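ARCHIVE CARD
CATEGORY: sequence design from structure
SOURCE FIELD: tokenized fold
FIELD CONTENT:
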């Protein structure tokens, strides 16, 4: 196939390239090829770009304008388009804000991500008393996904790359078919596709540390989401003219999350199938057979669900429920309500109030230490304070909480 990205633009000159973008590209190339650091410093900008293929026989390629071109130089690509559009939507799917970003794409990616609110997400598990805290989106996964959109966009369709930000998801879309065919074939394969749509652009982005090759970037994206116990990247390949990837920034089904936490040895194809189950997607006969043989799912088609029995392993139902811990705020609220009603309480009284509700996954000593730490935290936050001497001291609410 003809590589559009490698074509030289007849009237483009070196002045059409952005100097800041070239300097950034040098730094990234140096990071990836640290053994050549001294040699790289001796190269002129033209020699550097020639070595990574963005300049060919002195001519500026389409790939060079996409990655390093000045914003004023995009007319060289007309009527084709090189643009990334970010759209913010609310819970109802109504557009609240948007912005367009043009070349140099090597710098535009950070500008796009500066718009995205990567909030802290918290979820409870049965393995700990405290919620797990992490960002909604792995920054590396975000970057890899957008870089893949840039690398594999079919620029001949004259369309934009889009990044839609919802309340708990990011949706990346680029034009063009998904060359590997399916995600499963990419995950299980160990060789790159026979060709890339934009061969020169892809090779340059690899050299500049922007993307991986042989599908390893997508494999790593799946591993990252799995290690975070989050839903996997969701590739929509139903439209042959485009590829859409949804990254979910929340827990969908706690049973799926527990399954990943407790079973680190699951085969990735089984994890992909379980992810389809939690999202209500149709499974192939072979996927259903594999999951059933390992007792990972229950129910009958089309109403399959992740098995609770395996998710809680050998615990009895009573053990499982008892080991689930209340949220830390729940215990604080109990202490506050007690002190509002009775005015004060000593350590033994508060322990008696809370001990039966702290997770049975802890020893008696650990439960008492948990309560001690809870009270210490409430005192540091100015919620409660002590009166009296050490042995007979009592807890009371701080003045602003007594109302």
């Amino acid at each position: 196939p003809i590589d559009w990205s490698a074509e030289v633009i007849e009237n483009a000159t070196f002045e059409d390239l952005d100097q800041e973008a070239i300097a950034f590209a040098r730094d990234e190339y140096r990071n990836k090829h640290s053994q050549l650091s001294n040699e790289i410093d001796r190269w002129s900008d033209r020699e550097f770009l020639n070595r990574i293929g963005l300049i060919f026989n002195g001519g500026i390629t389409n790939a060079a304008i996409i990655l390093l071109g000045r914003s004023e130089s995009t007319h060289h690509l007309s009527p084709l388009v090189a643009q990334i559009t970010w759209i913010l939507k609310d819970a109802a799917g109504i557009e609240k804000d948007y912005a367009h970003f043009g070349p140099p794409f090597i710098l535009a990616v950070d500008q796009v991500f500066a718009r995205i609110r990567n909030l802290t997400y918290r979820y409870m598990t049965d393995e700990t008393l405290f919620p797990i805290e992490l960002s909604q989106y792995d920054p590396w996964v975000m970057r890899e996904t957008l870089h893949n959109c840039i690398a594999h966009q079919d620029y001949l369709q004259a369309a934009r790359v889009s990044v839609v930000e919802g309340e708990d998801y990011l949706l990346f879309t680029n034009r063009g078919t998904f060359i590997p065919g399916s995600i499963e074939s990419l995950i299980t394969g160990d060789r790159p596709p026979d060709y890339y749509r934009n061969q020169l652009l892809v090779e340059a982005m690899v050299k500049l540390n922007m993307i991986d090759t042989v599908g390893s970037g997508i494999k790593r994206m799946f591993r990252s989401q799995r290690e975070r116990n989050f839903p996997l990247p969701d590739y929509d390949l139903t439209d042959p003219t485009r590829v859409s990837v949804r990254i979910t920034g929340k827990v969908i089904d706690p049973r799926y999350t527990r399954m990943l936490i407790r079973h680190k040895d699951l085969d990735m194809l089984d994890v992909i199938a379980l992810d389809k189950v939690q999202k209500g997607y149709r499974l192939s006969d072979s996927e259903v057979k594999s999951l059933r043989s390992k007792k990972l799912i229950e129910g009958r088609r089309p109403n399959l669900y992740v098995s609770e029995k395996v998710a809680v392993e050998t615990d009895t139902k009573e053990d499982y429920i008892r080991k689930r811990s209340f949220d830390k705020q729940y215990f604080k609220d109990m202490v506050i309500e007690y002190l509002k009603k009775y005015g004060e309480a000593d350590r033994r009284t508060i322990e008696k109030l809370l001990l039966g509700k702290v997770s049975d996954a802890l020893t008696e000593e650990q439960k008492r230490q948990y309560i001690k730490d809870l009270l210490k935290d409430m005192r540091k936050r100015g919620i409660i304070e002590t009166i009296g001497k050490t042995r007979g001291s009592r807890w009371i609410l701080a003045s602003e909480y007594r109302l």
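CARD ANNOTATION: The CA atoms of residues 88 and 94 lie 8 Å apart. The chain has four domains: 4-76, 84-272, 279-319, 325-401.
SHELF: design records, drawer C
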